[in-house]
Amino acid sequence: MPRVFKRGKMWGMDYSENGIRKREIVGPNKTIAELALKKKLVLIAENKHLDIKRLPKLKFRELADKYLELYLKPNRPTWKKAESHCIRHLNSFFGEKLIHEITAMDVEKFRLGRLKFVGKNTVNKNVASLRAMFNKAVEWGLFEGRNPVAGVKFYRLDNKRLRYLEKEEIKRLLSQCEGHLKDIVEFAINTGMRRGEIFDLKWHQIDW
């Protein structure tokens, strides 16, 4: 909340610009400090309006397409294996939003939502891809301001070594499963997908 404050005999103004809190000393007069704050807020609002008006109104889904065609495909031969699921889930959450409307709070909501279905490592990878997309948007002149992912912290991971099932262990595991459970376990073993990713899978997402 923008306000004026007093420090000793001097008055200052406290406000936020582009998500960053700022405090500035104005002078010994409270009225002048209040006028300075109002002027500052008007300038911030005008600059924000001009920035949005000048930049293309790009939806996140459109940015994801550009990121895929202009960056991933030419530079990462294994993009489909590494990034396809990630882009799909990012599009599902952010797809119809204009990129300049996406905030750090939106990113936090996405993280918490994904964590209900996948592990922290997968969530971190999703957020890293989102950050990379916004970095490219800035580089390409499609986005101005602070990357909304910049202040988002990644989950701390357990660094214990992963152990994969041996063939005999897989046979024993499948022998204890029946019906749909056996199908799901076998699918997970062959794809490496987590429970939430399997349950979230749609027919149109399968490349026959």
Extract low-pLDDT stretches.
none
Question: What is the 3D form?
Answer: elongated
Class based on secondary structure composition and strand pairing: mainly alpha
Q: What is the terminal-to-terminal distance? A: 54 Å
Question: Rg to the nearest angstrom?
Answer: 24 Å
Strand content: 5-15%
Widest sheet: strand order? 1-2-3
Order of helix and strand elements from N to C terminus: EEEHHHHHHHH
Helical residues, percent: 55-70%
Could you list some keywords that capture this structure?
single chain, 208 residues, mainly alpha
Describe this structure in words.
With 208 residues, the chain is mainly α. The protein is 56% helix and 10% strand. The chain contains eight helices and three strands, in the order βββαααααααα. The chain has helices spanning 30-54, 60-75, 79-94, 104-115, 120-139, 167-175, 179-191, 195-199; strands spanning 3-7, 10-17, 20-27. A three-stranded antiparallel sheet has the order 1-2-3, with helices on one face. Helix 3 packs across helix 5 (120-139) and helix 4 (104-115) runs antiparallel to helix 5 (120-139). It starts with a strand and ends in a 9-residue tail after the last helix. The mean pLDDT is 86.
Give the arrangement of secondary structure elements.
Elements (H helix, E strand, L loop, with lengths): L2 E5 L2 E8 L2 E8 L2 H25 L5 H16 L3 H16 L9 H12 L4 H20 L27 H9 L3 H13 L3 H5 L9
Antiparallel strand pairs: 1-2, 2-3
Helix pairs in contact: 2-3, 3-5, 4-5
